[in-house]
Write a structure and sequence with these properties.
- Helix 2 packs antiparallel against helix 6 and helix 11 packs parallel to helix 13.
- By secondary structure, this protein is mostly helical.
- The termini are far apart.
- The chain has 15 helices and six strands.
- It folds into two domains: 196 residues, de novo design (two linked rop proteins) (Up-down Bundle); 200 residues, Glutaredoxin (3-Layer(aba) Sandwich).
- The longest helix has 34 residues.
């Protein structure tokens, strides 16, 4: 009997028992997916060079989801909350299975819990697909598990939900009077609190809202010094690749291959901006940042076999032309703040309104040749996704802001440029 047949048949004790098996199955799926998610999030917090196996590209990326502002709730990783949720469902099934009075209420309890879970995954799914523009494969596993729990428990819940509070009060009384069940519940609660408190502190990212990089929000986060030393050892062992760019005599030249429609490019723009401002004040002229275009669109990137970001070519041209008006930064800010709505038409309108560019149509083709030149250089550097950073020829992995700052300090010391 498959799950669809179970959903369509009237609830009976036998059907409820089979539904319970499906509930355990979906909860186990969710537990496995959320455990993997929690491990990835933990590694991202502890290892600045870690790259998850589910980071296929800028679209299929778990790290993009975990390191965004949607990766934690009240400072607790969403992945860890999911792990505790599914573990709690399995524990609830085990407790209710030992009580003849609580067993009939199990579908109702799971339905109530999964309703809250469904609201959470709908929000997170929307944020992932429509705001960040990414697909987190591990996250999809938890979405499927929650939806499965919601459907199966809803079909098996034969008692009115309005009676659930009274039944819950009765079953809690039974729980308190059962030493084994009470002890198991206490162990779970203590373990959950311990997991939350012992998880590495601090957000994975700096501020990522539209005002990031301004005022107090622009403070560069500090990294743990022991991990910084390990990171510096890793940096010292990495090969360097020759990259021809005008460094204007700077001791540290940072090159970013960029797509203005790429969510990760926008995130690093906001996160690293305070770092660049800091070094501009502390080591004037010693750190040079060069932006290179690598739009994920065939019109201006001959290395692409499919269009991933329609509007990325227009965005690259708009920024180049806006820089001539002294409004390049304002143009970049607009693009990164309006990525979900970016189209060729909206970019052209913003080029006029924000960048002061009135001749984009006339200069588009000639400027596009320069964009293609950057994309060709990116192919020579074996760029596989955006953003990709090089620091004096050293290819940097995706780094949390504090470790990106530490990398610059280390390189300045290495070349005698006055790093701290």
């Amino acid at each position: 009997m498959d799950v669809l047949e179970l959903l369509l048949r009237p609830a009976t004790p036998g059907i409820i028992r089979q539904m319970s098996r499906w509930i355990v199955g979906f909860a186990t799926l969710g537990l496995a997916a959320s455990s993997g998610s929690t491990w990835v999030h933990y590694r991202l917090l502890n290892d600045p060079t870690y790259v998850s196996i589910c980071d296929v590209n800028s679209t299929l990326s778990c790290s993009e989801a975990y390191t965004s502002q949607y990766g934690a709730f009240a400072g607790v990783p969403v992945a860890l909350l999911g792990l505790l949720f599914f573990a709690g469902i399995i524990g609830l099934v085990a407790l209710c299975a030992r009580s003849t009075t609580a067993a009939p209420s199990l579908p109702g309890y799971v339905f109530a819990a999964s309703t809250v879970g469904l609201a959470a995954v709908l929000y997170l799914g929307y944020a992932s697909y429509f705001i960040l523009g990414t697909v987190c494969l591990l996250c999809v596993g938890t979405y499927v598990a929650v939806i499965g729990l919601f459907l199966t428990s809803g079909a098996a819940a034969k008692d009115p939900m309005s009676s659930l509070p009274a039944r819950a009060a009765r079953d809690l009384g039974t729980l308190v009077r059962t030493p084994a069940a009470l002890s198991a519940t206490a162990v779970f609660v203590v373990a959950a609190v311990a997991a939350i408190l012992s998880f590495p502190g601090g957000a994975v990212t700096a501020a990522t809202g539209p005002d990031a990089g301004q005022g107090a929000a622009a403070a560069v986060p500090a990294a743990d010094q022991a991990r910084v030393r390990e990171f510096e050892t890793w940096l010292a062992a990495q090969p360097r690749e020759p990259i021809v760019v005008p460094g204007d005599g700077a001791a540290v030249v940072i090159v970013k291959f960029n797509d203005y429609q790429c969510p990760a490019c926008g995130q690093t723009y906001r996160e690293y901006k305070p770092i660049f401002e800091k070094w501009a004040k502390e080591a004037p002229g010693k750190v040079e940042v060069i932006a290179k275009d690598y739009p994920l669109e065939r019109e201006c990137n001959p290395n692409m076999t499919a269009d991933m970001h329609l509007g990325a070519c227009e965005a690259a041209v708009a920024v180049r032309l806006a820089r001539e008006k002294g409004k390049g930064e304002a143009m970049e800010d607009w693009l990164y703040s309006n990525q979900p709505e970016m189209t060729p038409a909206t970019v052209r309108q913003a080029a006029r309104d924000v960048g002061g560019v009135t001749d984009m149509d006339a200069r588009y083709a000639a400027t596009l040749v320069l964009v293609r030149g950057d994309a060709v250089q990116g192919a020579q550097m074996k760029i596989t996704g955006t953003p990709t950073f090089f620091m004096n020829g050293l290819r940097l992995p995706g780094l949390r802001p504090e470790f990106f700052d530490a990398a610059i300090a280390w390189e300045l010391r290495r070349v005698g440029g006055g790093g701290q």
